[in-house]
Amino acid sequence: MDQTNKGRLSVERIGFRYPGGQAVFQDFSFHAEPGEFVALLGPSGCGKSTLLNLLAGFHAPTHGTVLLDGAPVTPEMPQLGYVFQSPHLFPWLTARENVRFGLRMANDAHAAAQRARAQRYLDLVGLGAAGDRLPHELSGGMQQRVAIARALAMEPGLLLMDEPFSALDAITRASLNEELLRIWSTLGQTIVFITHDIDEAVFLADRVIVLGTAPRGIQAELEIDLPRPRTFHAARQLPRFGEYAATLMEHVASAMEAA
Ligand SMILES: Nc1ncnc2c1ncn2[C@@H]1O[C@H](COP(=O)(O)OP(=O)(O)OP(=O)(O)O)[C@@H](O)[C@H]1O
Ligand SMILES: [Mg+2]
Predict the structure, then answer these.
(1) Which own/partner contact pairs does 69-77 have at CB distance under 8 Å and 24+ positions apart?
(2) Which H, E and C letters describe 144-165, residue by residue?
(3) Angle at 75 between CA 71 and CA 80, to 5 degrees
(4) Dist CA 74 CA 67 (whole Å)
(5) Which ligand is nearest to the CA of 51?
(6) Tens digit of each residue's pLDDT (9 = 90 or more) over 193-233
(7) What is the 3-state secondary structure (H, E, C) of 77-101?
(8) Of the residues 49, 55, 160, 163, which should be mutated to test ligand 1's pocket, given the most ligand atoms within 8 Å of the CB?
(9) CB burial string 28-62: b at 16+ within 10 A, e below
(10) Does the beta carbon of 195 lie inside 6 Å of ligand 1?
């Protein structure tokens, strides 16, 4: 799949508030280049999930624009994929049919071609043999991989992920982190990834953004210049890994103090 120049995200001076609430964003701007992996950190309640919902077009900004490849975002855009904190699978559909679901809705290709594509993405997340299983027959980590395959099967130029691995044990999380990087290096989507875990942000991202307490916007931004491909253990051995993590820890702490 050629993703060149797809997944360019431009957030231009947006504002947003929930009905009756304080402003969560005021004149907030943010950009991601095609194929860039951006991680978002920040104190609880600072607006990370709200931002992702604005990027997905689930919320409309009160002013300003969110553009994906030059067009205002809408949730129906086929070039947009979303992975939530919990997998949200349909319990009555097999893993393969869950992955195929979006393709059916988009009426994309014939049934046999849709199944073949669903199978390809299950293979990609290491679940090639589990296609006929129902969600309750899968572990939490496997279910989350099905949710990732479902988002990837639509071949989105922009993948939005809201703490997708936070409910998983450390070992599963580490292996899914590596798997996500492997898939991303193959498909080359733009990824915006929310996490509370500083090490996870450093390990995954090209750039980490720390959001301050609403509506202050971006508290700090850090380019992560670590070699790729990255593996969980080798990356953590690099002195720069610890330096990046320490710097981000300070920024997150000062964002919390300002809360
Ligand atoms: N549906 C809603 N209605 C009203 N206010 C909301 C709603 N959802 C979130 N908020 C408020 O908007 C602010 C930002 O919330 P948001 O969920 O984006 O934070 P977050 O950074 O994702 O936090 P966490 O790290 O805990 O997930 C908070 O003050 C929250 O109380
Ligand atoms: Mg959140």
Answers:
(1) 69/5, 69/6, 69/7, 69/8, 69/157, 70/8
(2) HHHHHHHHHHCCCCEEEEECCC
(3) 70
(4) 9
(5) 1
(6) 999 999 999 999 999 999 998 888 999 999 999 999 999 99
(7) CCCEEEECCCCCCCCCCCHHHHHHH
(8) 49
(9) bebebebbbbbbbbbbeebbbbbbbbbbbbebebe
(10) no
* Short-list 224, 258, 221, 255, CA closest to 241: 224
Q: Are the beta carbons of 198 and 249 closer than 8 angstroms?
A: yes
The structural domains of the chain, with segments of one domain joined by +, span 1-79+157-259, 88-155
Amino acid at 164: P
Residues near 8 by Cβ (< 8 Å), separated by ≥ 6? Answer: 32, 33, 34, 68, 69, 70, 190
Give the closest residue (by CA) to ligand 1 atom 6: 18
Tens digit of each residue's pLDDT (9 = 90 or more) over 152-204: 998 899 999 999 998 888 988 898 899 899 999 998 999 999 999 999 999 99
| CATH superfamily entry for domain 1-79+157-259 | P-loop containing nucleotide triphosphate hydrolases (3.40.50.300)
Q: Which residues contact 142 (CB under 8 A, 6 or more apart)?
A: 95, 127, 130
Give, using CA atoms, the residue closest to atom 2 of ligand 1.
18
Neighbours of 6 (CB within 10 A): 19
